Description:
Chain A is an alpha/beta fold. Chain A is built from 24 helices and 29 strands. In chain A, helix 6 packs parallel to helix 7, helix 7 (224-236) packs parallel to helix 9 (267-277) and helix 11 (312-322) runs parallel beside helix 16. The longest helix of chain A is centred in the C-terminal third of the chain and has 17 residues, at 639-655. At the A-B interface, helix 5, helix 8, helix 10, helix 11 and helix 16 of A face helix 5, helix 8, helix 10, helix 11 and helix 16 of B.
Amino acid sequence: MIRPELINPKSIVIVGASNNVQKPGGKILKNILDHKYKGQIYIVNPNSSEVQGFKSYQKVDDLPDQIDLAILAIPAHLCPDTVEILALQKGIKAFIIISAGFSEESNEGAKLEKRIVDTINSVGGSLIGPNCTGVFNTNYAGIFTTPLPEINPQGCDFITASGATGVFIVDLSMTRGLPFSSIYSVGNSAQLGVEDILEYMDETFDPDKSSKVKLLYMENVKKPQKLLKHAQSLISKGCRIAAIKAGYSEAGSRAAASHTGAMITPDIGVDALFKKAGIVRCYGRDELVTVASIFMHKELIGNQLAIITHAGGPAVMLTDALSHSEIEIPPIKGEKAQELLSYLFPGSSVNNPIDFLATGTAEQLGIIIDYCEKEFDNIDGMVVIFGSPGLFPIFDVYNVLHEKMLTCKKPIYPILPCSINVADEVNDFISKGHVRFPDEVLFAKGLISVYNTPKPQLHIKLPEIDKNTIRHIIDMSDNGFLAPHLVSQLLDAAGIPRAKEKVVTNENEIDIALKEIQYPLVMKVVGPIHKTDVGGVVLNVKNKEQLLKEFHRLMHIKDATGVLLQPMLTGTELFIGGKKEGEFGHIVTAGLGGIFVEVLKDIQIALSPVSLEEALNMIKNLKGYKIIKGVRGSEGVDEQIFANIIQRVSALLITAPEISEMDINPLLGTGSNIVAVDARINIQKN
Amino acid sequence: MIRPELINPKSIVIVGASNNVQKPGGKILKNILDHKYKGQIYIVNPNSSEVQGFKSYQKVDDLPDQIDLAILAIPAHLCPDTVEILALQKGIKAFIIISAGFSEESNEGAKLEKRIVDTINSVGGSLIGPNCTGVFNTNYAGIFTTPLPEINPQGCDFITASGATGVFIVDLSMTRGLPFSSIYSVGNSAQLGVEDILEYMDETFDPDKSSKVKLLYMENVKKPQKLLKHAQSLISKGCRIAAIKAGYSEAGSRAAASHTGAMITPDIGVDALFKKAGIVRCYGRDELVTVASIFMHKELIGNQLAIITHAGGPAVMLTDALSHSEIEIPPIKGEKAQELLSYLFPGSSVNNPIDFLATGTAEQLGIIIDYCEKEFDNIDGMVVIFGSPGLFPIFDVYNVLHEKMLTCKKPIYPILPCSINVADEVNDFISKGHVRFPDEVLFAKGLISVYNTPKPQLHIKLPEIDKNTIRHIIDMSDNGFLAPHLVSQLLDAAGIPRAKEKVVTNENEIDIALKEIQYPLVMKVVGPIHKTDVGGVVLNVKNKEQLLKEFHRLMHIKDATGVLLQPMLTGTELFIGGKKEGEFGHIVTAGLGGIFVEVLKDIQIALSPVSLEEALNMIKNLKGYKIIKGVRGSEGVDEQIFANIIQRVSALLITAPEISEMDINPLLGTGSNIVAVDARINIQKN
């Protein structure tokens, strides 16, 4: 639980504050002072009577009561006792421990850490850290690192599981003009982790005052359901979230585990969770900062951009970079386009990219933006590329850009490629609250990531299934793979079509079976174990005459007790699977069978419960999607029905969370006729 | 032709030089002076008697003879006459025309441009431009843009078809510390284009003095064979080349065409050419600068890196980013690893990434690098990640890095993520001749691009084929698709196996045919047109008894004149194609047939002639490569033989350049048995 004292402390004690600002305990006090903290500051340092102008207490026992927040920058082994005094005797309920040497280092450290957490939990307190850089927000800079970003309540809220990575991201952000509202370095997350801070941001969200942009850096996801819930909730309230989950590869996750001592998080779960929550997944610092910079602009409603440039090359590279996405650079034509052209110098082009040449002026830029904003209905947003060859200042150009960005309803993304020639102009532009994109191709990649991230699925409606039957079967079953007839019953209860089958022992039963199963048929002798060896399987039986002839032959095979009739199925090989991934819950997989899954690993995933939209997207995102649509004269597969079966598998998993793993493989599809041919279900009750 | 006067002029006249340094004509003079040009400078400006301290001639007629180079910064319409006087009367043979308003703007401009080129050609002169920013090299800064990079003869040689893009790339490079040896802005390439400058660099290459790094920015490739030849040659001399060819997408190439008025270059040709030449293809400015920065380091021999870091997060992200490539972060273990660990603080890890913690010192960094250099045989290169949380200066760390980079044989790539906290340290490091990588993930992408670019294939040996027969058939053929029997003859002459076929009319002929064609067979009646309708096709004939029985039946069909015997072929569907792409020559394509090409566009390409290594790489890079290796119990396809057939197609295309297009589809492969089943060849003689 995050207590208000952690967020907005009226008083802070820094235990281990120092006059040496090259030490964390010295620097954190300096940062708090530089940041103009308005509350009361207390200092504990046994070696000094005065620290940076403040009276220093010799020991924590001497402190007054009623201090809101304690920041500890003392050796790890001293922390547990100190916390005990502060929490139990002095009534402090909010703690930031920046000291290292805890669970990240050794078992002894882990024990110290546990003592601290137990103490703080016993008083219902909050703990950030240990092994963190601290907390920075609009109220105080309880962080020992620099650079300190300028405070902007509408800047990014940034939660990082790595202090150093946080510093590097802030450094890069500041060179781009990306502002921050808060930074939480959670360190070892001994008590409060990334998910808990996000929960707090959700629960205290104020649409008028809270920042709408959240950035996360994580190396594991300990509480996936909490992350999912609050990310979805925040996004549904108008926030945008981008996150790095480092350690997605096997090698990377090993590196992360050795670095944090944390459990390895299954990346398939992270991917599914981020998609479901609507979190834009990033893979590096530059990408995170680029996506965050895009978030600082008005949202792009639609997919059509105008590229406005005074230099051809970057516009071509940007067009290239967007060409593999759904974002379009539509042609701009017609009377109004000609009218716009008349304002530009000879040689200019308005046919998107709008190239107004190296000699293009601020005034022309303003006119172009106005036309894109007001006259061109097929334009949803603008990218303005403007640098300088260094001949003269371009304050006027960037001022026009600034003013238009304030007044236009459509988003305007500024690509400012020059940091040396027009450093002053860029800094002036940034100082007005804007963000700079230095590279058009990296911008394009970020924009595509944002565009391709689905909206969170909040009220998911699953198909109705027979829950009572399912619960009954599951409750009666032991752990392990279910018997085939129970699998069939579960599929039936979940409304998942499967290949019809009937065991017949006489001609009368054959007549009844033929009312349900159509030719061509497959016949399999029942009884003998090795059916094929004894000639007990007949394929492609096309009529009654052949059926009866084969029936009598099969019934004469030794040990035969009956004959199983199934329709002879053909169609596109599909599969649907479900697997429990710990706290993430069930991941539903779907795809094309055969070589597509074997050779191309053509599998799409979603976190259960799977909405219809998600199921349809899974299908559309398959590499072999054209097969579903039908190629080479084949009929293909009805997407709506395939999606419905994916949803039914998800509904089955929700009803029976004891299913640890299941798969329907193959599922054969021809048009709207999609049936499960084989399925396995594994139960693991705790 | 590039004349020496263009590269190293003893005297320069600037026509249109001005006192106003906000104008190109004023700025170019200022740049030449700032750059400390040692030769004679002449000025022509009718409106001033003195320009920036130099006597100004009123008209070009007044100039003395024997000036080496003329730089024109005057309106386009004045250029042709001016050039005429300078070239014909004053004997000037080297020109840089920075003025715009030529072929890039209008037909009138194109005419002016042509007059200039004709004049300069008539005296055997050289022309850079028009519509360019100029030329910068160790001898002079004949360029009107800033920033001017510091000169470093071992820096990059950079040829750009877009002046503004060149400025933006130089700006970014300078913030990273990337040095330049020369910059050529070729503008409209009216006479000299990117390829010609590269040719010059190749022909004048001095292994002791010339820069080893070449960077290109192109929007079209006018002279692909020239580019290929000299890029290959330079790389074989030890150079490394990276290039952007913008306009690779359809939308992008349209944007480039509207911007330059140039022809659209087929991107498949560019891709094949870059691969063959060994040029690292880049798609954006940041990527080009990153790859160039990698080039400035010692070459990575091998594929195993040590990541040395004082911060866990970036090391994890770097490990992730490299995980999809062949570059490995191998575990570091054993006695020496334990020895190294003893030098580091508790909690450090040496099991690669080597994490020596936030408290890690310069001395420790030096020890770690020494161990990687000398003790760990499985390490081929190092990445050092070191930033700062801002507590104290880290000059000592970057000095160790600097010294080790000079002395170590293995490459050391410095990732320096902080540009604010340790700006002075970073600048000091750069000033010592190093380059900074700010982002580990973007670095990884660049390194992977470099690693994946094949070495140029210089002395390609193609299989022996029957050239006489091929030439005879081609010479006798008209334009259009060749008749099937001629296609068969060409395949035979090229040594490309095709499905055997024999027409037999009696049992004796059957015996002869069976020496060449193995069971199972396909039998087709010869004579009747609709063979299937008359029961004239028999599949899967497995033995002599069946064959004879069916033979006699088929010969009794009305109009039967014989029976065609073919082997009953099964196997993996493959294809090989060839297509002439203008001046690029023939592009050879290969891949898997069926859904792989139809659904997944799984096609690999190479520029003919195709080496064995290239052919094998084409096969290995197929998405469906696992099919070639054999999956689901299938035998797969012999890669060496498939590659040999690809080479034979290439040899056929080299022998018969009149083939505009051909394809062998399907080509059926089972193990070493790969045969063409169907083929088409189209001839287009000029």
